[in-house]
Each structure stands twice: as structure tokens, then as C-alpha cells.
């Protein structure tokens, strides 16, 4: 796909990077986690994105496993997929620090200070040029926060 | 931009209408705008923009309550718009034209003031599967409040009403019918006249949600025979925040006010209040004066262009768009009824509508994506949403070509 010449600027290709399209088409950890200890739903009423994030925490509050299900645009699905890849193996403060870093990175254009190595998650950065899509990229992360704080009601991006 | 000057023109050809709309003369992301989202909200011609601005510049004051000159001018303009709308939809009396904030408020007014006191347990309110949320939720509220039951006329795969069992449905305790003239998500034009006639034989009143009907066709409430017709200014090239409820006078007379306040009373004392006459009984508080004046200008504009001419132009465009879209590989057209307004929903491959919307926008093409406030329709097709291109009088064949080109690029980007 990167060979396609999209005349209308590079921002589109920046948004739909190969990694994003790959995760959107083949989301990792997709499905329901039967023995989840924590879960939360994320809803973006604007576009109808709806996903449910499952986490299984061990006795030491480490995320042993994560999964998600639902439907959404390429950005929200890829973001959720990348999220699950990222948080497995982290403890709660570690996962929360990713939440903070990602949401700041997406929404605060001024932010350059890097506390964390976001690595693959930087692929989501293309949304910064698309204000209407930032909520798609952060939806799963809000669900993560909500799940870790064990909110039971669905979070929305509104 | 020079063409924009002659907004008061007698429009010679429908193609020249585009010049009357300032918003259609700009670039979006470096491309001249292609506006295909008029079903959500239509652009405004200069005559409407000017009518509103002139009012604010020269004539603004409150209506119905001052002896001074500006109040008189504002009242004349406001009431003049009512007369225009009465003539436009062929209502029997200006008393039957109630200004509201839009279709949504018009429907809620009827639901609460007409329906709620008249239905109870065992009664049914009939809607259809293709309604906009604003013609579903107000009736659900009435059902919750009264114990009445909401029943839903099904649709078929093309997005047409399935009326096979309609007569039996109607005859079984239905006390009110609320139905869209045109579906916003699918474009289907419903056979409202037949439905109203059938309901009429059983003495069941009918509200038509005309939000998507009025911009596309000549609406004659006397000919339709409906009891209520609701529509919004912003979908017919007027301002937002203003709309109309047409109501049959005999029914309106029997309805209690929807809201209390100034303007809707004749006399207020603490022992009781006498309500004002129609239509003021339903217009509590200072109304959206500039909006109503803009709406009056929009009616002038539509009549100047001619509804017949608009309908013909849009049908030509719709046929072209449908054929062009059908050629695209991987496309699925949603809403293929035989009688349609110029709206087409579709899906392409497995590209999510929201992604498609962003990619089109980046090429200057504005479409609506999502569930279009018609979640039951999306549920019916088992899809989360669609991309919808909707056409108005100012669109042309080149717009459709631009849409097709933009969709092609989206497919390649996601290939
Ligand atoms: C068929 C239909 N009904 C009702 C509405 C609600 O109109 P408004 O939001 O202007 O009140 C719309 C607008 O989207 C519509 O398309």
C-alpha cells in the first residue's frame, strides 16, 4: 500500500501507516477473555465505535493477559490491538503511565517530553493532524483506565 | 466570487444555483469543496444569509410586544415568514403554522401535547423501522409515561416499508401514527399519502416527519391529508435552530400548551391563566426571530428555483450517482428502494465508514458517516454504520465524479 501515491498529502499516509492497517486488519488479542478480572467498555457515540477491554490481573496486580472485542474504525481497533500488546506484563502503575503518556501525546501538541518509550505506539501519532480522530485513538486507553480503576459503567469519549 | 452578488436573481438554470451559496466556494485541504452532506444540514444561499444579517443590522427587536418601530418591523418580518410557510405547504390557515426549534421539538410537542393525554395501556403508537431517532424516542417517552405500546412497521432488504400486514397492524388498537416522509439514512420515499388515507379511514391521526421530505419535493399538507407535518429550517437551506410544526387547526385547538411562558398567554393572574390563540399558544417565550426570518427567505429561494425543477435535477443526479457507485468494486449500496430521494448510503470493502469519511474529507469531499441517528436501520442491516452521500439542488455531475475518484483513492490506500 505504501507504493500508492495519494496526492492529497502525506498526512493520510501518516494516519494510516502500515502498522496501523496491519493491526486494524489483524487485531491482536481479539476476543473475549473468559477469566478476566477487570473489564470496561468504551463507546465513541460520534462514530459508533464500541469496544470492550478485558484484563486478567494476578495476585500481584500484574496484567497477565488482555483482550478486546467490538467494532470500530481502523484507528480505534489498531489502537486497542496495540494497547493489548503493550500492557500485558505490566503492573497497574506501569499501565497507567502508558495511559497518561499516550493521551498526552495525542491531545497535547506541545508535549515533547518523553517519559516512556512509546515504541510502536508512536504509529498512532498520525491522528494529531486529524482532530476529529483523536478520540478514536484514545478510546481503548480510556477503557483501560476505567477497567483498572474498576469502573463498571461504560466510558464514552464525549 | 463575483457571481455571488446576484443572489436575488431569477434563477435561469439550476446549474447556476451553486453560485448563490458562498460556502460552496472554498477549498478544503487544498481541494475545492464537494458538499455531499445536505441531508445532515444544507448550506445557505446568500439571500438567506443576508436576510438574517439585515434583520440583525436594521430591524432587530422583540416581536409582539412593543409599540416602537423596530418591534413592529421585527413582528412584520416574523409573521410574514409564517404566511410564506403557510402558502408553501398549502396549509388552510396561518394559525396552523407553529414555529419550533426544529423537527425534534415539533415531534416532541405533538407527542406530549396531543398523544400523551390520549393514550394509555392497551393503546398502540405506530412508527416504522426506518425512523430517525427523533421520531422514535419521543414516542418511547410517551409509552413509558402512559403504558401505551410502540409498534414498528418492518422494512425489506431494499429499505422499503413492508406494508403486507399494515392494515391488520393499524386496525389493532393503534391510536397514533408517526412516519417519516423520506428516510434520512436510506433515502426511501414512503407512500405517506396512502398510509394517511388508511389511517384516516380508521380515524387515526398521522404525524409526518418531513425533515427530509421538504427539501426535495413539493409538499402539500392538504393533498397529503396529514394531521401534523414537522420539518427543520437547516435542511431546507435555512438557519439552524428553527423549524415548523404544521398541525390541523381542530387538533391544535384541543391540545394543551407544550410550554408555558410569555407570548403564549392572553391574561395571567395567580388564580388562572388564559392561553393565547393559535399559533401563539404553542410559541412560549421570545422565539428565534432571526431564524424564522431566514427560514422565510429560504422558502422564497426554494420557490424561486422551483420544487419541480429541484426534484428533476436531483433525480438525474441520483441516477448518475447510483450508477457510478455501483461500478466501484467492493461497494455495497444500502437503501435501494424504487422511490428514493437523492441520498445514497453505502459500504466499501471492509473500510470502516469513519475511516472513509476522513479520507474523503482530505480530498475535499464532505460526506456523513456513522449510524445517521437511525440505529434500528443499522441493526436491520447488521452494520455499525454507513457512509452517506446526499445531494441537494446545488450539486452537479462533477461532484459525483469527485466522490468516485476519492473513493477509488480510499480503496487503494486500504488495499
Ligand atoms: C428524518 C429526520 N427526522 C428528524 C430529524 C431531526 O431534525 P432536527 O435535528 O433538525 O430536529 C432529522 C435530522 O437529521 C431527520 O433526518
Describe, in plain words, how this protein is organized in 3D.
The complex is a heterodimer of chains A (158) and B (415). Mean pLDDT of chain A is 85; it is low at 1-8. The radius of gyration of chain A is 15 Å and the shape is globular. Helix content of chain A is 37%, strand content 17%. Chain A has a four-stranded mixed beta sheet, with helices on one face. Chain A is built from five helices and four strands. Chain A has 158 residues and is of the alpha+beta class. Chain A has a single domain, classed as Alpha-Beta Complex (Sufe protein. Chain: A). Chain B has two domains: 3-32 and 306-414, Aspartate Aminotransferase, domain 1 (Alpha-Beta Complex); 49-304, Type I PLP-dependent aspartate aminotransferase-like (Major domain) (Aspartate Aminotransferase, domain 2, 3-Layer(aba) Sandwich). Chain B contains 13 helices and 17 strands. Chain B has 415 residues and is an alpha/beta fold. In chain B, helix 1 (46-59) packs antiparallel against helix 9, helix 2 packs across helix 9 and helix 3 (103-115) runs parallel beside helix 4 (137-146). A seven-stranded mixed beta sheet of chain B has the order 4-10-9-8-7-5-6, with helices on both faces. A four-stranded antiparallel beta sheet of chain B has the order 13-14-17-16, with helices on one face. In chain B, strands 1-2 form a two-stranded antiparallel sheet. Chain B has helices at residues 46-59, 69-89, 103-115, 137-146, 166-171, 192-201, 221-224, 249-253, 289-305, 307-326, 353-362, 375-381, 397-414; strands spanning 27-28, 31-32, 34-35, 97-100, 124-128, 149-153, 174-180, 206-209, 228-232, 243-247, 265-269, 272-275, 331-334, 343-348, 365-366, 368-370, 386-390. Helices cover 37% and strands 17% of the residues of chain B. Residues 102-104, 132, 134-135, 180, 184, 209, 211-212, 232, 373 of chain B line the site of pyridoxal-5'-phosphate.
Amino acid at each position: 500500500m505504501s507504493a500508492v501515491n495519494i496526492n492529497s498529502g502525506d498526512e493520510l499516509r501518516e494516519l494510516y501507516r502500515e502498522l496501523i492497517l496491519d493491526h486494524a486488519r489483524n487485531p491482536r488479542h481479539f476476543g473475549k477473555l473468559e477469566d478476566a478480572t477487570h473489564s470496561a467498555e468504551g463507546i465513541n457515540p460520534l462514530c459508533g465505535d464500541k469496544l470492550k477491554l478485558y484484563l486478567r490481573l494476578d495476585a500481584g496486580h500484574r496484567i497477565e493477559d488482555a483482550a478486546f472485542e467490538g467494532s470500530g474504525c481502523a484507528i480505534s481497533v489498531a489502537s486497542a490491538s496495540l494497547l493489548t500488546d503493550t500492557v500485558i506484563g505490566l503492573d497497574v502503575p506501569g499501565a497507567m503511565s502508558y495511559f497518561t503518556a499516550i493521551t498526552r501525546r495525542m491531545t497535547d501538541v506541545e508535549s515533547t517530553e518523553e517519559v516512556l518509550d512509546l515504541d510502536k505506539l508512536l504509529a498512532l501519532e498520525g491522528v494529531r493532524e486529524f482532530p476529529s480522530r483523536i478520540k478514536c485513538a484514545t478510546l481503548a486507553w480510556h477503557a483501560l483506565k476505567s477497567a483498572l480503576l474498576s469502573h463498571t459503567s461504560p466510558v464514552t469519549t464525549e | 466570487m463575483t457571481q455571488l452578488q446576484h443572489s436575488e436573481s431569477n434563477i435561469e438554470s439550476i446549474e447556476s444555483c451553486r453560485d448563490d451559496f458562498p460556502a460552496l466556494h472554498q477549498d478544503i485541504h487544498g481541494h475545492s469543496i464537494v458538499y455531499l452532506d445536505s441531508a445532515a444540514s444544507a448550506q445557505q444561499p446568500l439571500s438567506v444569509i443576508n436576510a438574517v444579517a439585515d434583520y440583525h443590522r436594521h430591524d432587530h427587536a422583540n416581536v409582539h410586544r412593543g409599540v416602537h418601530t423596530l418591534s413592529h418591523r421585527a413582528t412584520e418580518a416574523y409573521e410574514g415568514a409564517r404566511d410564506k410557510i403557510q402558502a408553501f405547504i398549502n396549509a388552510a390557515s396561518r394559525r396552523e403554522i407553529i414555529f419550533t426549534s426544529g423537527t425534534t421539538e415539533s415531534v416532541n410537542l405533538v407527542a406530549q401535547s396531543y398523544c400523551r393525554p390520549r393514550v394509555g395501556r392497551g393503546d398502540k403508537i405506530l412508527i416504522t423501522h426506518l425512523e430517525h431517532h427523533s421520531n422514535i424516542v419521543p414516542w418511547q417517552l410517551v409509552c413509558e409515561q402512559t403504558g401505551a405500546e410502540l409498534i414498528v412497521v418492518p422494512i425489506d432488504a431494499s429499505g422499503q416499508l413492508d406494508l403486507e400486514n399494515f392494515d391488520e397492524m393499524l386496525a389493532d388498537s393503534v391510536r397514533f401514527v408517526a412516519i417519516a416522509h423520506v428516510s434520512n439514512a436510506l433515502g426511501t420515499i414512503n407512500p405517506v399519502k396512502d398510509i394517511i388515507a388508511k389511517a384516516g379511514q380508521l380515524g387515526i391521526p398521522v404525524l409526518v416527519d418531513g425533515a427530509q421530505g421538504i427539501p426535495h419535493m413539493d409538499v402539500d399538507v392538504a393533498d397529503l391529508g396529514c394531521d401534523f407535518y414537522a420539518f427543520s429550517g437547516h435542511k431546507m437551506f435555512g438557519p439552524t435552530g428553527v423549524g415548523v410544526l404544521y398541525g390541523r387547526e381542530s387538533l391544535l385547538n384541543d391540545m394543551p400548551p407544550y410550554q408555558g411562558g410569555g407570548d403564549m398567554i392572553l391574561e395571567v393572574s395567580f388564580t388562572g391563566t388564559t392561553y393565547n390563540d393559535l399559533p401563539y399558544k404553542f410559541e412560549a417565550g421570545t422565539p428565534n426571530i432571526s431564524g424564522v426570518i431566514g427560514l422565510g427567505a429560504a422558502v422564497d429561494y426554494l420557490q424561486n428555483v422551483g420544487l419541480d425543477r429541484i426534484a428533476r435535477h436531483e433525480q438525474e443526479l441520483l441516477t448518475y450517482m447510483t450508477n457510478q457507485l455501483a461500478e466501484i468494486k467492493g461497494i455495497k449500496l444500502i437503501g435501494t428502494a424504487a422511490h428514493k430521494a437523492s441520498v445514497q448510503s453505502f459500504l466499501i470493502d471492509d473500510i470502516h465508514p469513519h475511516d472513509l469519511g476522513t479520507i474523503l474529507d482530505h480530498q475535499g469531499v464532505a460526506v456523513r458517516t456513522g449510524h445517521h441517528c437511525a440505529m434500528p436501520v443499522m441493526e436491520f442491516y447488521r452494520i455499525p454504520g454507513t457512509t452517506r452521500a446526499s445531494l441537494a439542488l446545488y450539486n452537479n455531475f462533477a461532484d459525483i465524479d469527485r466522490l468516485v475518484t476519492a473513493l477509488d483513492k480510499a480503496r487503494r490506500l486500504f488495499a
